């Protein structure tokens, strides 16, 4: 007879592939292309793990069906923004099933960019650029006692695999030196990273949370990331990845009051000048033109940045 206890549980369907097309009367069309993960949890599911009792188990197959059902029946604007769709699916589950306490829905998308010809967007043709992936996850939790408009909603949003590189205006000098240090001061270097960024919204009111301009905030965080990377002299010319990370996050916290905190993970993908002195060629420091990219290891710089007093919606 088993005596162990369940410390946490969540079950559902992962990687549900769903595409929704919106067709406007004038021929203009939109597309959303998602991978959805939907996970249910609640105390009453414990017996399905510990006693083999399936009576309350909403089949993962039914959860998958619900994702397609909601993609069709919700108003288009509630499907096309990943954060809104995630919160809709999660709150639908929590409201429909009394024994579901929390629903965690993750939506991942590789955005389709609209094709442009002569600076005009094509009505129904799209392309994909780069490897960048946008994702969001919503946790909707019942309040006690349950009430339709009073739920706790936590939304994390972010993107990863945004690859960037600059060929100058990056340095790393004046760092700690001891007997284990071999790295020389680097007054100028190639800098490359694959940005992972995520940020958080918290609210106890779903309708209010859904009013956020999620697409504009996503675009704004990306713009801040690229702008600081390319242009902010404090971040790069005189300091480090750490300093750039902080300036990027600070800009986003200033621009978007509903964002609670910002996390970055920035690998420092090294490109070292190749020593060609054996061939009588100068290729180090200010002569560097030919580099050897190093696949592994990379630096890995992370931080979560927030306001001194936590901002709420
Ligand atoms: O921006 C950097 N931060 C570091 O902490 C570090 N360490 C290192 O070897 N190179 C770099 N670059």
Structure description:
The protein folds into 2 domains: 8-148, Urate Oxidase, CATH 3.10.270.10; 159-313, Urate Oxidase, CATH 3.10.270. Helix 6 runs antiparallel to helix 8 (241-255). It contains 8 helices and 12 strands. The chain has an 8-stranded antiparallel beta sheet. It is globular and about 75 Å long. The chain has 313 residues and is of the alpha+beta class. Helix content is 26%, strand content 35%. The mean pLDDT is 93. The longest helix is centred in the C-terminal third of the chain and has 18 residues, at 214-231. Uric acid (URC) is lined by residues 172, 183, 240-242, 268, 299. Urate binds at residues 60-61, 172, 189, 241-242, 268.
């Amino acid at each position: 007879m088993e005596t162990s206890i369940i410390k946490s549980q969540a079950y559902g369907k992962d990687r549900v592939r769903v595409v929704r097309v919106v067709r406007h009367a004038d021929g203009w069309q939109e597309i959303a292309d998602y991978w959805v993960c939907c996970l249910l949890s609640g105390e009453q599911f414990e017996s399905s793990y510990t006693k083999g009792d399936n009576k309350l188990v909403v089949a993962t197959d039914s959860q998958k069906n619900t994702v397609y059902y909601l993609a069709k029946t919700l108003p288009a604007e509630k499907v096309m923004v990943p954060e809104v769709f995630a919160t809709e699916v999660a709150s639908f589950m929590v409201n429909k099933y009394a024994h579901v306490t929390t629903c965690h829905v993750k939506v991942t998308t590789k955005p389709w960019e609209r094709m442009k010809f002569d600076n005009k967007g094509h009505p129904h043709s799209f392309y994909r650029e780069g490897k960048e992936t946008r994702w969001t996850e919503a946790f909707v939790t019942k309040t006690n006692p349950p009430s339709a408009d009073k739920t706790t909603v936590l939304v994390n949003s972010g993107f990863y695999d945004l690859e960037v590189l600059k060929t100058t205006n990056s340095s790393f000098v004046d760092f700690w030196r001891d007997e284990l240090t071999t790295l020389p001061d680097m007054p100028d270097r190639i800098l490359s990273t694959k940005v992972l960024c995520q940020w958080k919204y918290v609210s106890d009111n779903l309708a209010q949370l859904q009013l956020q301009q999620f697409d504009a905030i996503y675009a704004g965080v990306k713009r801040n990331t690229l702008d600081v990377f390319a242009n902010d002299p404090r971040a790069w010319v005189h300091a480090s990845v750490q300093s750039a990370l902080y300036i990027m996050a600070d800009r986003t916290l200033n621009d978007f009051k509903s964002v609670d905190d910002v996390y970055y993970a920035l690998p420092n993908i090294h490109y070292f000048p190749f020593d060609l002195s054996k061939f009588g060629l100068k290729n180090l420091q200010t002569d560097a033109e030919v580099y050897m990219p190093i696949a592994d290891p990379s630096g890995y710089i992370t931080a979560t940045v927030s306001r001194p007093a936590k901002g709420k919606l």
